[in-house]
Backbone:
């Protein structure tokens, strides 16, 4: 049988059991929860209408307004008004518009900790497994019926899949390219309900914020959660963020995965996820020359200081092309402050880029990023399904910040390697 | 039928509406403005107009991928469909369906079993799908007791109310 993996240990601790077995359903204590502006409103209304009472451990629920950085319509203003009143009434932790996007703010403000159970209303909540947590997305009903009133949720114990990455990619291929490429290698829906453990020499070599892209982008392969065993890099970031690590767990060395998959990343080129699913990944060389009207650094996975630095490394000193807008959306206020400190704001501004408020950017085009049927965008967002950004014929391409910045200089999708 | 004495029965017979693989929640009702009148219209414009209470939605692989908010499942339920049978479902969509009390069964092979418009019989508790016209049957593992009880109760909220001790109340 072997020992227990990290997820099994966390679930056993939180459900008061000696051990748990894949496939069984347990009710476990939730250590922290996070919801964004759209889902707080939905879950909150269900809670008030059909559940009622008080919210347990309310300060452990972070409400982060990230779709709406400034209400474009009265109904969106009403959503925020409801959320603010709900947070005040029950004592939830509120991060108002302009704070940044859900996951970046939650991680930087200590809402995910090693060994904890983190639940989020957003499907990309899996990203917090990067800190060695069990991070799972739950629907509005779990929030309203069990997380809010009881501080608990039901979980089916997942099977473990080990994804080992070896080698080092060539110059011009970023961690985001590898993460997008890996999504296609695993295949959408092919790791259903599994806990994916990313490991191997390539993962080991990455910084915390590069690893972040793997626990983020793997969600569309169907995984329940994804994580990386805590190591020195995890400890460094946990200390920097001042995280409580009293629940830190490591999987047993003899824990046996149900599947082991291994890929060599040493020949992965820069790639683009093309319309209309995240699994439609192609080398940038195959789509180079495609005209776009929008380039965006932003989203749950993008708009980090690391993304802006990479973009600036090719864009600084250049101008955006006519007919294309280059929009930069910091993932948090802290990121914008870091960009100011590093001198990244002025050169991008001077080159014609526009800085937007810290938020989720054009995710679902609530505040920005709606397109006509003839328009296209290339971005560091996490999804490209039809209809998310205006007309359902509009095209969304997902790529690395290097490719986004190179494209902003030409107005057509451009292989960034020619600028390196 | 003792099994059906508690809560709602989980056997359904109805006309099926068949969809393909990778149907995202964005096609169902991800956005507030999108109403029942539009659900899945991007994939089959007849569906929102002609769907009748008791009809059954049949889907392919990764049905309900993309955003995990329950709105998509609720919009689909609002059409009056009795249940959903898919090759496989995206995790959050599957979870949301069960939590709102919309029965969903993952049954590999269902796509080959029925054509769009066929009548089918679905027994969620036994994990069986039958095409009465052809006699073809597909079987899958029955749901865990916990999930079966949640579906019989009509969703997570009534289930929590009925079993408060599970949640430490």
Residues:
């Amino acid at each position: 049988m072997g020992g227990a993996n990290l997820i099994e240990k966390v679930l056993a601790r939180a459900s008061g059991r000696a051990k748990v077995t894949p496939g069984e359903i347990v009710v476990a204590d939730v250590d922290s929860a996070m919801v964004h502006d759209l889902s707080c409103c939905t879950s909150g209304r269900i809670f008030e209408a059909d559940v009622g009472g008080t919210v347990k451990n309310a300060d452990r629920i972070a409400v982060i307004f990230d779709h709406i950085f400034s209400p474009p319509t009265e109904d969106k203003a009403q959503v925020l008004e409801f959320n603010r009143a709900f947070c005040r009434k029950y004592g939830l932790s509120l991060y108002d518009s302009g704070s940044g996007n859900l996951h970046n703010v939650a991680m930087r403000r200590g809402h995910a900790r090693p060994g904890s159970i983190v639940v989020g209303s957003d499907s990309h909540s899996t990203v917090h497994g990067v800190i060695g947590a069990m991070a799972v997305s739950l629907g509005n009903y779990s929030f309203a019926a069990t997380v809010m009133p009881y501080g608990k949720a039901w979980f089916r114990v997942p099977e473990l899949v080990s994804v080992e990455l070896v080698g080092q990619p060539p110059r011009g291929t970023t961690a985001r390219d590898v993460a997008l490429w890996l999504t296609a290698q695993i295949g959408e829906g092919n790791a259903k309900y599994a806990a994916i453990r990313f490991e191997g020499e390539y993962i080991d070599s990455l910084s915390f914020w590069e690893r972040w892209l793997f626990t983020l982008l793997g969600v569309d392969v169907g995984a329940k959660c994804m994580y990386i065993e805590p190591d020195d890099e995890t400890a460094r970031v946990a200390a920097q963020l001042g995280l409580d690590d009293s629940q830190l767990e490591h999987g047993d060395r003899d824990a046996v995965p149900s599947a082991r998959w291994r890929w060599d990343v040493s020949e992965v080129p820069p790639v683009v996820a093309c319309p209309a699913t995240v699994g439609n990944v192609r080398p940038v060389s195959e789509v180079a020359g495609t005209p776009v009207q929008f380039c965006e650094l932003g989203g749950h996975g993008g708009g980090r200081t690391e993304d802006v630095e990479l973009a600036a490394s090719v864009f600084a000193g250049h101008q955006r092309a006519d007919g294309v807008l280059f929009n930069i959306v910091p993932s948090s206020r802290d990121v914008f402050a870091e960009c100011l400190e590093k001198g990244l704001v002025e050169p991008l501004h001077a080159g014609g880029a526009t800085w937007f408020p810290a938020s989720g950017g054009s995710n679902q085009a609530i505040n920005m990023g709606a397109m006509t049927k003839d328009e296209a965008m290339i971005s560091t967002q996490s999804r490209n399904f039809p209809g998310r950004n205006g007309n359902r014929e509009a095209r969304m391409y997902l790529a690395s910040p290097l490719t986004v910045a190179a494209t902003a200089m030409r107005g057509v999708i451009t292989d960034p390697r020619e600028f390196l | 039928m003792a099994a059906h004495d508690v809560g709602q029965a989980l056997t359904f017979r109805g006309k099926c509406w068949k969809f393909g693989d990778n149907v995202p929640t964005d096609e169902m009702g991800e956005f507030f403005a999108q109403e029942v009148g539009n659900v899945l219209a991007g994939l089959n414009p007849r569906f929102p107009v002609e769907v009748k209470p008791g009809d059954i939605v049949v889907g392919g692989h990764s049905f309900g991928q993309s955003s995990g908010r329950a709105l998509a499942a609720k919009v689909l339920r609002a059409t009056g469909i009795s249940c959903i049978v898919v090759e496989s479902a995206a995790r959050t969509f599957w979870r949301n369906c069960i939590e709102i009390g919309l029965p969903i069964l993952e049954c590999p092979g269902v796509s080959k079993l029925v054509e769009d418009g066929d009548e089918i019989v679905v027994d969620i508790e036994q994990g069986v799908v039958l095409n009465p016209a052809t006699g073809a049957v597909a079987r899958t593992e029955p749901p865990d007791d916990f999930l079966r009880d949640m579906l019989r109760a009509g969703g997570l909220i009534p289930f929590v109310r009925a079993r408060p001790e599970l949640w430490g109340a």
Summary: The first strand of chain A starts at residue 25 and ends at 29. The two ends of chain A are 50 Å apart (CA to CA). The mean pLDDT of chain A is 96. Chain A touches chain B through 44 residues (CB under 8 Å).
